[in-house]
Queue: 2 jobs
Job 1
Amino acid sequence: MGLVLKHVEQTKSGSWQYRRRVPKDVSEVITKREFKRKLGDSQKEALAAYPQYHAQVERVIDAAKKRMAGAVAASGPSASEREAYAEALRRRADLVARGATEEVLELAADSLADSFPQEGYEPVGAPPVDRHTVNLLRLGPERYRPPEPTLGDALRLYLKEHLKADSPETDSRVTGLATRVVEAAIAAIGRDPLLTAITREDARAVRDHMLDRVKATGRGAGGKVSAATVSRELSILSAVINFAKVEFGMPDTMPNPFSRLPVARVAKGQGQKASEKRDPLPPTVLTKTRARVLANAAPELALIWRMDLPHAARSRRCCRNSGDAAVRVPSSRRGGTALMAHWPYNTSKWARLREAKLAETPLCEICARRGEIEDAVAVDHFKPVNQGGHPRLLAASLWQQPRSSQRRRHGQEQALPPAIQANRPAMPPCPRHER
C-alpha cells in the first residue's frame, strides 16, 4: 500500500516530495506559484519530514491571510491613520525585500500618485493608505514619521497586547466591555481624539454622558446607571491610556485626563461606608427579620439564621483564632483590661476544653434560656472561682455567653441565683439582656 498524505506525491525517480499550489486569495502576498520540497527517498523518511514542513506551510498561508485581512481593513473607511500608515509601511517593506532600489521606490511612488488627481506634489482624494504609501516610498520611514495615536488606536493596542483578544482563552466579555467603554467615550467626545489632545473637559463630558445613560436590562432597568458602574468604566479608560503611553513611547509628562476623575459628590454624612455597601441587607431589615425568625422558627432554623448573619463569621473567627488559653476581661480593681494568664486558664487542657465547648455549643446558653440567639465567644465557670466555684476543668461546670455579657459578669461580680439543679447549677442571668 502506497503512502497517502495530503500534498505528498512520489516522483518518477521513486522519491517523495511535498507539492502544494499557493491559494489564490493570498497570491498577492505569496509571489511564488507553489510550495515544493523533497521529503525523502523512502516512505519512512517522508513520514518523518512531512509534519514539520506541512506545519511551516500552514503558518505561511495563515500569516498571508492575516496580512490580506489587515490590508483590507486598513483600506476601509473606518481605518485610522495609524493603521493606514502601518499597511503602507508593509508595502514598502515588501518592495525592499524584493530588491527594490531607491530609484525603483521613487518610480513606484510616482506611478501610484499618477492614478489620482494631484495638487502640487500631493495626490488629491487618495485613500489614507495610498497617501501614506506614496510619502513613505518617496521619503522613507526616517523622514516620514507615523501619525500620533488616537484613543481608538489605544483601544486596539490594549485589546491585542494586554487583553490578548486573539487568544481563544480570552473571555469575550472582558474585551467586549473595554470596547464598549472606549467607543462610548469616543461617541461622547464626538470624534476619535488624539491621546495628546484629550482634555480634562473632554473627560468630564464623557463622565456626564455615562451618568445620563439609562439601564435597558437587568436589575434597576429604566433607571440611571449607578455612579459605581461609571467609576469602573472610567478606570478602564484610564488603564487604556496608561498602557498606550508606555507602548507608544509617549512622554511621561503627558497627563491622563481620566485619572482620579470624581464621579459623584455626596453631602457630608449622607454617604455609605464600604462595609455598609457590602452588607446584603440594611441593619434595620436584619433586626426585624431576626426577631420574626426567632419568634416563629424551630431551634434548628434559628441556628442556621445565626450562622448566616454578617457578624457571625467575625465572631467565630475571634474565638477560633484565639489560640492561647488566656481570656481578656475587664479588671474590677483597676477598671482596665487584665489578662487571665493564671491557672487553670494558662494550661493546654483548658484550651482544648474551651475549644471543644465552643464547638459543641456555639450559642450563648444563658441567652438561649431567655429565647435569644447570641454568639458564644468565651467559656467560663458557672460560679466564679473567687466565690467558691470549683476550679477543676469539668465540662459540666462550664457555660458560654457573649463577650459583652462575660465582661459585665466579671466586672460586677454578679452572684448566682439560688436555684440549683441536682447535678448542674442553673444558668445565671445574662447581663446583656437585663433591663
Job 2
Amino acid sequence: MLNAIFRGLSGPQVVPMSLQKSNTQRALEVTPLPVTETAEQALVQHRHVLETLLESTGDFIYMKDREGRYVFVNPAAAKSVGKSAEEIIGKDDRNLFPEEHARHIMEKDRQIMASGISEVFEETRAYADGVRHLHSSKNVCRDSAGAVIGIVGISRDITELKRAEEALNSSELNAAGARMANALAHEINNPLAALTNALFLLRQGDGSVPYDELLGSAQESLWRITKITRQMIGLYNRTAAARHIQVQDVVKDTLANLDSRIKKKGIRCESNLSPCEFYGIDADLRQLITALMENAVEKGRSLVRIKLYSRTSGSSDSRSEFRLIIADDGPGIAPEHRDRIFEPFFSTKAEKGSGLGLWMARGIANKYGGKIRVRSRTVEGSSWTCVVVTMPTRRKFAAADK
C-alpha cells in the first residue's frame, strides 16, 4: 500500500493507493479506504507539516492566554531566552525579561487583545546577550464563539539588520560631515581673503582703489560669512518653543534684510502679501523664507515677484495652510539640475553657493508636513523660475522635532 499526497483547493489530500498484477500487465488501481481513516491520515499529515515549520523556523513563535501566560513557544523562541519550552509554559514575561521590558510587552499585548486588531511593529527586548531588535506581528486568538482567549505572535530578530543600518548611517554621516567641513572651509575662506585684502588696502591708504569700493567689498564678504554662519546655526539650534507667527511679517523682514542687495542689483520687487498665520518655530520659518528669497534675488535679472495667501487644502482633512510663491526672471534651472537642487552641497552658482540653503529649506518644509515645488523655464529671452511653498497653518509635532 502506498499513500500519495495530492494538493487541492482544500489543502493536502492523502489518497491510499495499491499496486496489483494481472496476467499480462501491472495495473495501477485506487483502493478506497473508509472516510474516517482518510481524514485521520490527512490530519496527521497536516500536524506533521505544522510541527516541521514551527521547529525549523528561526522566527520566534508563541501563544499566550488572556492573563499573558505562555501556552506555546517554538524552539527558536525558547532558545532566545535560554530556557526550554517546559520552563516557559505557564509563565508570563516577568519570568523572562527585566521588569520594565516585561511591563511594556504585557501592556502592549493587553491593548491588542482589548482592541481585537492585529498589529505589526518593531520593538526592543533585553536578553542575556544584550538588547535585540525585533520585528513583531501579533494577533488575537478567539474561541468558537468569537471571544478573545489570548494572543499569538511571530517575532523576527532584526538586530543584525539594525546594526548594519546604523553602521551605514554612521558612515554616511561621517562622509557628509567631511564634505560639509570641506565646503564650509572653502566658502568661508574666499570671503575672508577678500575681507583681508580690503582691510589691507584701506590701511595702505594710497588711494589706488576708491574707499567706497573697498568698503563695499568688505561688507559683501562679511555678509557671505554671516549667511554661512546663520545656516549652520540653523542646523543645530532647534530648542526654541513653537508659537503663532504672522508669515507676512517674516516676508517683510526678509525683504528689508535683503534691501541693499536688491538695490545693488537694480531688481524690482513686487509683493502681494495677505495676512497668514503659522504655528511653529520662528527660526525655522525665517530660515526657509530667507533661503528661497536670497536665491531669487541672486538669480533674478530685473524682477522678483512674491505672493502670499491662505487657503484650504484639497485633501481629505481639509487643513488650513498658507502658500508662498516666489518667482524671478533669472536664467532658469537646467533640466538636468532640477532633480538635484535640493541635495546638500549641490549648487549651480560658480563661487558663492554652499549648496545648503535649499536643502535646509526642504528639510524644514518636510518637518511641518509642507512641501516645496519648483518650476522653471530656460528659453533665452523668456526664462524664469517659480518656487511654490505650501505649509499647514498648524501641525502638531513631537517635542523631539522642536
